[in-house]
Specification:
The chain is α+β, with helices and mostly antiparallel strands. It has two helices and eight strands.
Length: 151
């Protein structure tokens, strides 16, 4: 068998099998006690998203997927630092448990007519079920996330 003839065909087969329209983003984020962080992402019409979150240092925080209106409402309600009485409208809530949790493919882009911004929202405040533990900055929560999109 001539390797020079087989190799280009094999490489072409690998490239054809790749779905170049999927996107993947992996990172981690530090959420200090009584703080929140967001990771902004944009979905095109009919795009789906699959997000996984995992606590790295076993200090739990809560994670949600929210839209722009919910994020603006949160900022307006919490600008005075009153997280306990805030409300949050979310598209998806991850369980506030140790370990890795995945949303599964969510059709958030379904029905959209234009690119739309969403947020992966992490909070380490007294808002939700899990409040930050007492103990200073060492009680910051480190979360790893993976954000995948597909058409």
């Amino acid at each position: 068998m001539n390797i020079k003839k087989v190799l280009p065909v094999a490489l072409l087969g690998l490239l054809v099998g790749c779905d170049t329209e999927d996107e993947n983003n992996i990172d981690s984020i530090l959420i200090s006690p009584n703080d929140y962080k967001v990771v902004e992402f944009t979905l095109k019409p009919n795009q789906e998203v699959n997000i996984s979150v995992q606590d790295i240092n076993h200090v739990l925080s809560e994670s949600y997927i929210i839209d722009q209106a919910a994020y603006q409402d949160w900022q307006d309600e919490t600008q005075n630092g009153d997280f306990e009485n805030a409300s949050l409208n979310f598209e998806f809530a991850f369980p506030p448990l140790s370990g890795k949790h995945q949303s599964g493919w969510l059709p958030l882009g379904s029905g959209l007519t234009a690119d739309t911004t969403f947020y992966l929202f992490f909070e380490n405040t007294k808002f939700g079920v899990v409040a930050p533990p007492e103990g200073g900055d060492e009680m910051a929560s480190t979360m790893m996330y993976t954000l995948d999109t597909r058409n």
